[in-house]
Fold this sequence. Notes:
The chain is about 35% helix and about 20% strand. The chain is α+β, with helices and mostly antiparallel strands. A hairpin with a 2-residue loop joins β3 and β4 (about 60-65).
Amino acid sequence: MTVTASPALLRTRDGWHRMAEHVLAAGQFSASGTIRLRPCPGGFSTVVGIDGRQLAVVGNRLVILDGGERRETPLTTVGAAADFAGVTPGLRGSYSPVTPADPDAPLSVDTEAARLLADWYALTETALRRFTAGLGVTTEPVLWPEHLDVAIAVDAVNYGGSLGDDAIPEPYLYVGPHEGPPTGPSVDAAFWNAPFGAAVTVDRIRTPDEAVGFFLQGRALIDRSRT
């Protein structure tokens, strides 16, 4: 997968992030007390939903699934999207949001950039499910709105995929031991290349199997360091 941190991708990621925090997570937390989201074809969606409605961001549109009815609208502003979804905009009562809650600031979501980000979510989720299946672990991947990443935690280690951030602009996979990266003379410093652990960017991961290989390598190195 070839993805660069182009201006269109960065604007799209920002628009998705604001929607994740201030519409989907905000509405779901107010109704059900959880901020957990999940990837879906073309984007991401609520998990529990809001009074029987599931909300999804698909490309540059907000989709509402209410029983057998489907409604959708283009993404223009957080305020307009929240009004269409029937929720109060702005995440309150959970963590301190990363993105601004301005309901009237324009959302700039490019359809091609959104497709690339959605493909990265799909690859990450598939890899995480194969990884945990191989371990015999039943852990459901979660899309966390504060980081806009899809992740799991196994044996005090976070494994996941991010759409990119200030430190690493491109989408990337990561392995993050809760105690921090291993230290010592025998540690593979080339693998542990980030303050939180290890990261590999999208340009080096072409398939879910390659992503699983990265997660397995991290797990093996951590297991070795803990013995």
